Amino acid sequence: PLPSQGSLLYLDTLRAAFPQALAPRGTALLSWAPGHPRAPAGWPLPTLYCTPAEAGTLPSRAAALRVQLLFALQERALRVLEAGLAAELHDALAALRAGWPELAQDLALGRLSPQPGLPEGARGRLQALLVPNAARAAELRAECALGFEGIVQRLWPQLEVVVVGTAHGAEQLYCDALRQADCKGLPFYCPFYRAAGALLGVNLWPEEPAPRFLLCPDWAFCEFLPCPAEEEPRTVLLGELWEGREYGLVLTARPGEYRCRAGEVLRVAGFHKQCPVVEPVRRESQALSVRGESIPEERFYRSLCRAVGMWPGARLVDYICVESALLGASSGACAPHYEVFVELRGLRDLSEGQRYKLDQCLQEDFPIYKSFRFKGSIGPLRLHLVGAGAFARLREALGSPLPMPRVLREERLLQLIQSTVIS
After folding, report:
1. DSSP string, 220-268
2. Sheet containing 315-323: which strands, arranged edge to edge?
3. Omega into 228 within 30° of 0, i.e. cis?
4. pLDDT tens digits, residue range 141-189?
5. Is 177 in a helix, a strand, or coil?
C-alpha cells in the first residue's frame, strides 16, 4: 500500500495540473488485480471511479479489461483514463478495435455478454450496474467506423490526461504506441516510482513527457552503487548523490527485513528542495548476452525502432528477444544468436533484406556486437513475425499484473509465442 503522504501528493499534483481531474465518476480504471481491487491513488475512492472495483478482480485478465472498458464507454464525460500498466490500456484499446460492434450492442441494451473468464455470478452483479444507452452506442459505432487514430479523445472529448502506473522500461513501448495513435494529443502521467515492491518516489511534473521522480527519504531506505561499477564498490546515501550520474539501486524496503539490489539503474536529473530527482534508465536483468556483449533492453529497443523505420508502412506493436540457447536444437546449428519475435501493424511480411536491417542496426549501434559478428562467434539475428494479438495472449498466459519481460527466459512462454509465428 502507498504511504498516505504519497496518495495526497499524487491527488494534489493531479488536481493542480488538471483542474477537473477529480470530478465525481470522472475517472475510468483499467487495471487487472486478481483477488483484490487496487488503484494508484492508494485507497478506495468510490466517488472518483466510474468502473466498479469487482471488474478488476475477475480471474481472466482479458475479461477484466473488457468489462472495465464497457463501463468506461458508458461515461462520455470522463476526465481521466487510468491504467495500472500502459500494457493494460494498450490491450483494452486493442479489444475495442477488435470488438467494438459487440461493445456497442452491450451499451445499447445495458447488458454484459457472457465471455470466458467472467463467472456468471460476477456477470449478474456487474450487469445490474449497467443501463441501456442507445445514444452512446450510436456514438461509439460512428467514431469507430471513422478509424482509430485519436479514438480515445474522440470517444471522451473532455478527457484531460492518461494516468499509467509505469511509463518506463518495458512499458515505454506501449506508451509510445498509444501516444502515436489511439491516445494522440493526450498527456501521459506516471505518478509513482516503485521497485522491488516498494514505493520510492512521486512524479510532481505531470505535464512533462519523460517521467522523473522525487525520491522521498522516509518511504524506504535507499542506497546507491555508482555506475560504472568501481573496483571496490561502496554504496552512497541520498545526500551523497551527484547530478548527472547513474547509480544502481540497493533497497531496504522495511528496515531490518531485507536488503537487496533492486536491479534498477537511475540517473540523477536534479534536486527538488535538497531531495534527489531521478529518471529510471534501465533494468540490469533485462539484457541480451550470448557472448558476454550485454546489450541492454532499452538500447536494443532503440535499434529495433530504427530498423522498423526502414520498413515502409510498418508500425511496431510489440516484441520480445530470446537468446538462441533457450530454443535448443530448434535454433539450428549456427553460432549463438538472437531470436526476435515482433508484431507489426501495417505490414504483413518482410523480405530477407528488410529482416537484415535489424542486425545491421545492432552492428552500427554496438561495436562489440559487430566485432563478434565479424569473427563469427555470434550468428546472424533471426527475425520472426507473429500474428495480431499474440502478445496480448502471452500477457494473459503470464498470469501476472506485472510488466512482461522483453528479454524472454521462460521456455513455456517461448513455446506459446512460437505457436503464433506467421513468417
Report:
1. SEEEEEEESPPSS---B-GGG--TT-EEEEEEESSTTT--EEEEEEEEE
2. 315-323, 338-345, 382-385
3. yes
4. 999 999 999 999 999 999 999 999 887 777 888 998 999 899 999 999 9
5. helix
Facing residues of 213 across strands?
Answer: 278
Q: How many domains does the chain contain in total?
A: 3
List the single range of 185-194, 199-208, 254-263, 366-375 with lowest mean pLDDT.
254-263
Residues 274 and 299 in one domain: no
What are the beta bridge partners of residue 49?
A: 27
Has residue 295 got a pLDDT over 80? yes
Please indicate, yes or no, whether residues 234 and 255 belong to a single structural domain of this protein.
yes
| pTM above threshold 0.85 | yes
Instruction: Give the Å distances, CA to CA, from 61 to 99, 110, 167, 384, 389.
Output: 16, 22, 20, 26, 14
Instruction: Please give the C-alpha separations between residue 161 and each of 82, 83, 289, 403, in angstroms, as whole numbers.
Output: 8, 11, 39, 22
pLDDT of 372 strictly over 50: yes
CA distance to 241, 350, 413, per residue, from 236 (Å): 7, 49, 39
Domain that holds residue 252: 211-283
User: What distances in angstroms separate CA 366 from CA 182, 316, 360, 371, one per listed residue?
Assistant: 33, 22, 10, 9
The span from the CA of 267 to the CA of 244, in Å, is 6
How does the average pLDDT of the chain come out, rounded?
A: 89
**Concatenated DSSP letters of 359-420:** HHHHHHH-HHHHHHHHHTSSPPPEEEEB-TTHHHHHHHHHT-SSPPPSB---HHHHHHHHTT
- Domain assignment present for residue 203? The answer is no
Residue 402 and residue 295 in one domain: yes
Does a structural domain hold residue 132?
A: yes
Tens of pLDDT, residues 59-87: 999 999 999 999 999 999 999 999 989 99
In a domain, 201, yes or no: no
Specify if 336 maps to a domain: yes
Q: Are 395 and 305 part of one and the same domain?
A: yes
